[in-house]
User: Fold this.
Amino acid sequence: MLAGGPPFHLMWSGAFDPDRPRVKRRVDLRRVLQFFRPYWRAELTVLVCIVLVALLGLAPAVFTKWIIDGALAAHDIRGVAIDAGGMVLSALLAGGIGVYQGYLNSLVGEGIMRDIRTSLVSHLHRMPIAFFTNTKTGEIMNRVSNDVDNIDNVVTGTLVTIVTNVAIMITTIVTMFLMNWLLALLALAVVPLMILPLSPVGRRMYDVRKRTREKRDEVESLIQETLSISGITLIKSFVREAFEHKRFFAVGTDLMRLEIRLAMVGRWFIAAIVAMVVIGPAIVWFGGGLLHIFRGLSIGTIVAFAAGGLLGRLYGPASALAGIQVQVVSALAVFERIFEYLDMQAEGVVRSSASVKPAILSDVAGEIRFDHVTFSYVPERTILHDVTFTVAPGKIAAFVGPSGAGKTTITQLVPRFYDPQEGGIAVDGRDVRDVDLDSLRRHIGIVTQETYLFHDTIAANLRYGRESATQDELEAAARAASIHDVIASLPQGYDTIVGERGHKLSGGERQRLAIARVLLKDPRILILDEATSQLDSENEALIQAAFLRLMSGRTSLVIAHRLSTVLSADVIFVVEGGRIVESGTHALLLARNGTYARLYWTQFRDRDGTALASS
Ligand code: ATP
Assistant:
């Protein structure tokens, strides 16, 4: 006996719910740091480099003081040469270390990006189909490409900026105090003015940046949709180029405005900081001058402070750090968007009643059982009502019924593209929600009306069914699917690139290729959705023959649109309004003179009269 599914409301709380507001919360810093962990050695080396460069950066100021107060005062030419040489040497050394540090920065930045992008894409591959039907492809693309690219700025930019500037500031402050504590205090007095609380600017920046990213999602979606092969065909056939131009210009203008706002936020503040960088030395010259006159402070010290680079090494980093909060906040916004995706519930969760580790479905005979299945895509609208049926192993079940009756939906529940809210589906008596999802899907082959092919060679597309397939196996499958001759006639044969989504092949050829692909997979259970479009009789016969060879010996659920398929089925299920209203063989159902008989006279006979005559 099949166990019933969890109650309706519980089901929705666990599943992907498009209407559920996305979780709003601050980013957990520890989680961000997790990504840095594998690179700790390189990071430690970066830290050492930063400290070394910071120390070497102080050398010019120190040498300046020594030249003025020591070598110049004593007219010591050797001393002057040594000090000047020291300046050059320290600069060269710092440059060399800087290059190595740059290499390490790229290593860490690019490595983290690769890791985040891989985990993001892998996670997306595990997201339920409902997520993809509810999310614009452009938005997904934007997060995976642009957002992850931004992470690089965070890693190699923001983080290194913070550490570098802190290191420079600390070493500079220590040196200043060692030279003259009074002048050091004077120089430091200006710093707090620069690091005035920046939070209002940061907050605004964060908001504008967020809105900008959302707008970029929109632009990306529009590009994606209109430049896809289906989109462009639609535009051309409805002569909508001008409309699309206007639409694109409108979102482009929105994006432009947001980008300008983003560039301007905090600009006044930054201008003030820049002014302080000029005012600071003036204060030091004045204070230093007084100290020289009244306290005998050496000129070398004043010059080292004001012109020898010490002040610059204090105010530069101070202003950089003052602005860094803005960068950190926006960087966190990027992580927030990435975590938002990573936190979404992946599919294939076994029911809580099942064992923690789901059972692997190994050998399958192929019995399929629907037990009082009720299903809806969205809570308000029930699509399947109490559907119950069994298909014995190796048998062909045809599903017929009016458009929108729920035939496709029924077949999609078997590989768990969706889970029912009530009732259960079992393969060989085991509820599909209790077994490992991959092992379940390995036994199921699907051929839909819309054949998807990758922009790759025919051989590579076929090998999607079985990676290890030999050339002989590819050809055998292609022969069984009545497509080998077509492939062989192409100049490049199996190495022919099929074009975007396989659009270089005809609809019928694409479908036969899809059949060959599933033949290579060799599943026990088949889900076939016959094309509704009329094919010429030769193509039709080829596909029919391929379908029959594919179905032989496998449990097949076929959404049938042709009489020949219905006639070859062991059992026919008539679906209407999400219910199975009739079931049986063709002769039995015809004799009953119900819905099937009506469909037969209106749909099948008109469409497939020749098949009837020949049967
Ligand atoms: P056809 O023969 O035209 O393909 P069908 O019998 O296969 O029709 P289904 O595709 O199962 O019908 O659709 C059944 C109902 O479910 C339809 O009313 C459709 O609008 C709805 N539906 C299908 N997919 C979704 C979805 N992803 N989200 C919400 N509703 C959906």
Notes: Strands lie at 368-375, 384-391, 396-400, 422-427, 430-431, 444-447, 525-529, 555-559, 571-576, 579-584.
